[in-house]
Structure formats: C-alpha cells, structure tokens
Amino acid sequence: MPERSARPTRAAERLGRMLTIVPYLVQHPGTSVQEASRLFDVAPAELRRDLELLFLSGLPPYGPGDLIDVEIDEEDRITIRMADQFARPLRLTRQEGLAVALRAIELLATPGVEEAPALASALEKLRAALGPEVVGEAERIAVAGGGRAPTHLADVREAARDRRRLRIDYLAASTGELTSRRIDPEEVFAWLGHWYVAAWDVDADQERLFRIDRIRSAEPTAETFTPRGLRGLGRELYTATSQDLPVRLRLGPSARWVTEYYATTQIRELAGGSVEVTLPVRRLERAARLVLRLGADAEVLDPPELVERVREVARATLARYCDGPARSR
Amino acid sequence: MAGEDRPDPLERLLNLVGLLLETRRPLTFEEIRTTLEAYRGDNLESAKRKFERDKDVLREYGVPLELVDVDRWGTEQGYVIPKDRYYLPEIAFTPQEISALLVAARSGGGQIALERGVRKLLYGAQGGVLTGEPGGPLVAGSDADGEVVVAAAAAAQRHDRVRFGYRTAAGAAGTREVDAWAVVFRAGHWYLVGRDAGRDAVRAFRLSRVTTALERVGEGSAPPADFAPSDHVRAGPWEPGGDDRAEVAFAPDVAWHALEAFEQAQEVRSLEDGWVVLSIPFHDAEALVAPLLEYGPDAEVIAPAAVREEVVRRLRELADA
After folding, report:
1. Smallest Cα–Cα separation from A149: which of A201, A99, A114?
2. Tell me: domain B244-319, CATH 3.30.70, correct?
3. In the CATH hierarchy, which fold is given to the domain comprising A245-322?
4. So what CATH class is B9-86?
5. For chain B, how far is it from start to end, CA to CA, in angstroms?
6. Pick from A101, A313, A328: which is nearest to B302 by CB?
7. What contacts A117, CB < 8 A, 6 or more positions away?
8. Looking at this predicted complex, what is its ipTM?
9. For A253, which of A162, A273, B255, B320 could close a Cys bridge (C-beta 3.0–4.6 Å)?
C-alpha cells in the first residue's frame, strides 16, 4: 500500500506551496481563486491569506516599486506582477521525479487507462527536460506482462464522474450467481491486476466492492446520486457478513498466494512454508471450487461438509469427461 | 495586508529565497541581516538562530541553498541559490497531458512526493483553464509502499548494493544484499531485480515483501549488456498467454466471464445447448488447468488431449479422496 510520507513542517509546506502556486499564477493570469484552490488542493481562505503576504515580499531595496503586486478582482481572478524571481517553480527533486515517473509507469502498465497516450508523452517530455538523474533511466524501470481492460471500465468511470446510478448484471464471486442490481459507483480502482469499483448497492442498502470484469452489462439509469465518499483502494476486498461460514484450510507453499488475494484470518505458520488459514465464505460451493483449483496444495480442515462438497463437485465435473463424448462432437 | 502584530514567517522565507536567487554574488549572514528587515529586530544571537531555522526549512523543501567562498582567498563564506539548480526548465504540456498528470497525481492515495512533483509541472500547462479529469477519477496502486518503490528505483539508477529484510513467499524471513539493477512492475506488484550477493545469482524481490528500509551498503556491480529485467520476474500462479492454445467449452451463464478472465481468449463457436467454446493460449497444462477447475462442472476442456487428461487426473485425485 502506498503510505503517506512524513508530513513536512508547516512553514516548509506553506513555502513550498507558494513557490509552486505563484509560478502557475504568473504564467496563467486571470486564474480564479476557486480554480487555483482546486488545482493545488488548498482551501480558498488559506490561499487568499498566503497571497496577501506576497504583497510584503519583493526584492531589495523593498520600496513600493520593488514589491510583488497581487490583484484579486471582484470576480476572484488573480493577477500577479513583479514576481520574476518566482516565474518558474523549483526543479523536481529526485524523490518527486521518480515518484511521478513510477506512478506514470504503473498507470501505463494498467490496461484500460484512457489517459495512457497523453501520460506517455508527458513522461517523455519530463525525461527530456530533467534527465535520467531525476526521472530515472528508462531501461532500469521496466514493465512486464500485459492484460486487457474489462469491457465496462469506461462505463463505470463515466458514471462515477457524472454521479449517475447504474443498473448492472453482476456475477457474484461469493455465490456464483448472476444478479441484477442498481449501484451508485464512486471510486474506481486497480488492484493487483484487476479493476474494482467501490459503490453503494441501492437494493441491498449497503456499501459493496464490485470487480469490473464480473459486470456483464452496465446501463446508466435516469437517476443521479450524492457521493458518500466511498473509498476502495487499501480496503479488504471482501466484506465479511454475519452469514459467513468460516472455512479452515492448510495451504502448501505454492498455494500461499491465497493469503495475499483473499481476506484470510487466523494465519498460523507451519514448518516448511505451509500455513493454516481461516477463509470466510458465503457459500460452501465457492470454497469447494477454490479447493478444486488448489488440488494437492490445499487440505480442508473444517468444516467436514466441505470435504464432502469438494468430492461432489469433483465427481460432477468428472462426469462431463467420462459420461460420453467431448462436446466437440 | 496581513494585519497581524507578529510577522508571518512565510513573508521572511519568501524574501530570503528571492534575495538569494537574485543576488549577483554570495551574501554573508551579516549582509543578509542588513538587507532583510526580518532579521534586524532581534539581537545577533537570536537572529542567527532564526536564520538557521529558516535555512533548515528551505533545505527541507529542496531549495538548493549553497554556502560558498565569497572571494577567491576563501576568507569569508556567503549564501546563494544558483538559478540553474533552482529553476525547473520550461516544459510545455498539452491540456491532455496535464489532465493525465492530474489523474496520475490523484491516483496515488496521498503520496506527497508524487503530488508535489505534479503540481510543480502544472505551470507548464498550455492554454486556458484546465478541464480536470475528463475520463473520471481513478485510483491505482501496487501493494508496495510508494517510498520503498522510489528508494529501489533510485538504487537501481546508481547500481547501489542495498541491504534489506525480506520475507519470501513461503514465509521465511531473512536479510538480503543485492546489487540493484532495475525495478519491474507486473500485474500490480513492483519488483527489485538484481544480483543477490549471497547467492551470486540474479533474483527478483517483490517490494511488498521487503520488511525494512533499503540500506545502501556500497557500490554494486553493473548488469551484463544483455540484461532484460522483466525476464526475471515470474508471474503469479496464472501466467497468462503462451504459444499453445486450448479449446474449452463454458456453460452459457459463465462463458462471457471466462472471456473477460482469460487473457487473449477468443470465442470460437457456440454449441447447440448454448455452451460457448473459447480458444485460450497457455504455457503449460498445469498452469491452465488450475483456474479452469474453479469453474467446476461449468467448464469442459475439449482439446488438446493432454490438457483434458490433466483435468481428469486432478479430478480423480479429489473425487476418490
């Protein structure tokens, strides 16, 4: 998970903000207080206060003609004059340059980001202007693998932007059933190679995460919604409910990935790299199919019904292969 | 005007930056004190302390404040901010590029270095008012701490040898010393690839499994000329793609999802009972069979025979258990 860096001190933060905002305002005269406060993520009142201080700054000998001139007109448009020394921002530090380059590369490697071409050309310009010592040499930052964007990613992102309620057909992983729901989509996020959306499930009247490749169809409705500030990234991808059944599994070393991809609890390390975990599931069927997938790398410890269920699913699947010809004929 | 009795430190800091940027020669503290009123009021000692604190604030924000000899005899030293080290070169970005950078800055879950870096770039926006994020907001992340990724990338730039704590996929914890050669991003994970000094072999380390900060212990070796970072990063248990193709029939209710889930899968034909046959690329039968088994009786491998047999073998083991 990306974590917040240590907060810079208050004075350094305000100084840094001014050394960044002032060049923007010098280059873009007439920017409104509201627009600047949105772009630079600073409260309008704080921005006004700091801009007023600029009046008191300037260059020697600090006569009236040497001070920076800040004007905010009746329509809140800002104009700054006499600030040549702040007409360009400070260079990006290596830390900042690498952070921008690495994030751009993450997004470029995530299928379905429609800004990818613009981001790629922005990164190229950045590299040309700042050099590898700030942005990093391209051959030392690589991307492997590819992937495909889920069909309905753009539909969900647009609905989140326009705050439009969607009607979706969704294949729930927990039950394996295709259901129709109305959702209010808020945060669209990519995590470990998959796209998700944090949304309000209108009919269930609760918050849910949906994996976008499990959405079979998405239709905008006539209704809009007020965002509740739902966040997805960094949360457990599975919300446990009181109806969950705890399944206890012993996983061999090559099945340990289960602990990284599912919300497992009560993890107990065993000798030789094996691990015992509890996996909450809504239907035993779901766990049975996972155990089918893991094969010899997993052993069901509890409940005993699951052992029987795995056997049944295995036999039912085997029946397709043994009772009669393959479907090709 | 601020209208307060106590002068705001921001005013003093802005004046100090402006003064040291515009000065033609390095200024001693005494000269700075004579020029800037904010340092004049106090006695010398407290003015000096104030100046020391201000220098720290400037350096904390990354202002390249230099202390250099005032004259060639080195009798006195003075402060200056070199313009070429301070100013960002001009970079003209299109509105689309600026929007993309804003999407990137806001996708990071509050990574400060990322947000600060992108804000500095906004001044280069061409055209009028920015439109924001046309495609709608999105968030993307890896499972590694952003600062560890930046540290690993910086180490790879310099080919540092770094030491760090690491927990393997199998859960074994230990310490590694690695010549950092590259960082690789794959399916949501960042990896550091380099020569593991203890094993004298090229290894990939998933950065989310790094348990300490990366500590630089010295200069590392350089990679061989034919080094290809991504070759060393193994995919997860479901490595997609491959040169062989299998034909798999899926039940009507799940076929659309299988088409989304299996990378580069193609629909081949529909059967009379509504089942849909997909062609799926694969590397080896075992890796393909595992995710197929999760479909239970809703999937049936048609060809090749070797994959069919692998499915049957795996199912027999479980059915007879």
Report:
1. A114
2. yes
3. Alpha-Beta Plaits (3.30.70)
4. mainly alpha
5. 83
6. A328
7. none
8. 0.78
9. A273
Which CATH number does B146-232 carry? 2.30.30
CA distance B230 to chain A (A): 5
Name the closest residue on chain A to residue B36, using Cα atoms: A60
Tens digit of pLDDT at every position of chain A (329 positions): 333 344 556 888 889 999 999 999 999 999 999 989 988 889 999 999 999 888 777 787 777 778 888 899 999 999 998 888 899 999 998 889 999 999 898 888 888 888 889 999 999 999 999 888 788 777 788 777 666 788 899 899 999 989 999 999 998 877 778 899 999 999 888 877 788 899 999 999 999 889 999 999 999 999 999 999 887 766 666 666 677 889 999 998 888 888 877 878 888 888 877 899 999 888 888 899 999 999 989 999 999 999 999 999 999 999 988 865 555 43
CATH 3.30.70 fits A153-224, yes or no: no
Decide if A189 and B318 are in contact by the 8 Å CB cutoff. no
Is this model's pTM higher than 0.90 or not? Answer: no
For chain B, which residues make up each domain, given as ranges? Answer: 9-86, 146-232, 244-319
**Distance (Å, whole) CA A284 – CA A306:** 6
Q: Which residue has the tokens 């702040």?
A: A86
User: Where do we find the tokens 């949304």?
Assistant: A199
Do B164 and B156 form a contact (C-beta atoms < 8 A)? Answer: no
Q: Which of A115, A161, A233 to mutate to test the interface with B (most CBs of B within 10 A)?
A: A115
Please tell me the CATH code under which domain A10-86 is placed: 1.10.10
How many Å lie between the alpha carbon of B74 and the closest alpha carbon of chain A? 26
Select from A234, A248, A240, A237 the least CA-distant residue to A304: A248
